[in-house]
């Protein structure tokens, strides 16, 4: 039976950030459909939704589209579907561990180190279209040699990944526990730490032996294997997602409702006070790190300390686009650029 409101993930195979969300959906038992995207730009399906944001994944719940895996998981925690949310089952200490591990994988250089370790032994580093696309995402100039950068920085990156595995081996996993938070089954803490490591360890030829191996880190490698087995088991009880075309997505979203609980612009917010932002104003929204040159335009619907919500003005169907406050910026769009017809 389709979920109401429908849940659709926009992703491509082997996307590590998408895996973070797919693991969550599997372990919570939340049914979803998918719209497969190209690994590199352009992405016409997203353009039809008025979305210029260029990173993957995105997730729609009804006509609300969520950017950034951090906010996506926060939205799914509030979804009343499948198993109870992880927050409902976690102690304060476990929730603190989840937050700390998420910060480690998302806010430090750890994921960048994973990329630098993994890419040199994959065909992607010899794919000119991929390299050009990633230089655009990183904001590098025409003379930036992405492949050379990855190769030059790989030795230090190997050390960083090795140190992370050693941390797991000698602390959280040292007492023989099965899961990082000491739970009986995988928790959000496991999801927050495993997704970049699983991407590395499951990519043929990517593991830099003898520096990183199951012999050196048996507990950490066994934990990754256990997690993958748990995901496979969870997936067997979840209906297979239907793969939707861009046209089908438009049709589904056109019939879905929207969540208006985020329709609040907090008047005491420093950004609101400083820039005079107000509900209904035409704004542009973009990530402040990678992909910052790709700005999505819409009318400001909500702005709080945690979330920015705009209603797309260039879409084939009315959608609300949500971004986390952390890592994103929003500003008024000059009237002469609004072009709202």
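Q: What amino acid sequence fits the structure above?
A:
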């Amino acid at each position: 039976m389709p979920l109401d409101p429908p849940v659709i993930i926009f992703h491509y195979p082997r996307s590590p950030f998408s895996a973070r969300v797919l693991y969550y959906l599997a372990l919570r038992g939340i049914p979803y459909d998918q719209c497969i995207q190209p690994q590199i730009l352009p992405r016409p399906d997203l353009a039809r939704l008025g979305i210029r944001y260029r990173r993957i994944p995105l997730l729609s719940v009804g006509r609300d589209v969520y950017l950034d895996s951090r906010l996506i998981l926060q939205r799914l925690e509030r979804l009343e579907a499948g198993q109870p949310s992880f927050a409902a089952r976690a102690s304060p200490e476990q929730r603190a561990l989840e937050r700390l591990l998420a910060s480690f994988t998302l806010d430090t250089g750890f994921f960048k180190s994973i990329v630098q370790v993994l890419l040199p032994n994959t065909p992607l580093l010899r794919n000119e279209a991929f390299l050009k696309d990633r230089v655009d995402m990183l904001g590098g100039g025409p003379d930036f040699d992405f492949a050379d950068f990855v190769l030059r920085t790989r030795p230090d990156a190997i050390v960083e990944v090795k140190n992370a595995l050693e941390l797991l081996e000698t602390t959280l996993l040292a007492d023989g526990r099965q899961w990082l938070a000491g739970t009986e089954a995988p928790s959000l803490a496991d999801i927050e730490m495993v997704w970049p490591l699983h991407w590395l360890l499951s990519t043929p030829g990517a593991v830099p032996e003898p520096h990183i191996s199951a012999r050196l880190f048996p507990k950490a490698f066994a934990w990754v294997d256990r997690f993958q087995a748990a995901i496979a088991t969870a997936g067997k009880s979840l209906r297979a997602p239907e793969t939707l075309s861009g046209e089908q997505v438009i049709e589904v979203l056109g019939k879905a409702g929207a969540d208006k609980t985020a329709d609040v612009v907090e008047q005491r917010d420093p950004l609101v006070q400083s820039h005079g932002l107000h509900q209904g104003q035409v704004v542009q929204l973009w990530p402040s790190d990678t992909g910052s040159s790709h700005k999505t335009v819409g009318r400001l619907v909500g702005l709080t300390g945690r979330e920015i919500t705009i209603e797309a003005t260039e879409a084939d169907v009315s959608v609300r686009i949500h971004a986390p406050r952390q890592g994103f910026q929003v500003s008024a769009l000059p009237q002469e650029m609004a072009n709202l017809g």
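Q: And what stands out in the fold?
A: The longest strand covers residues 296-303.
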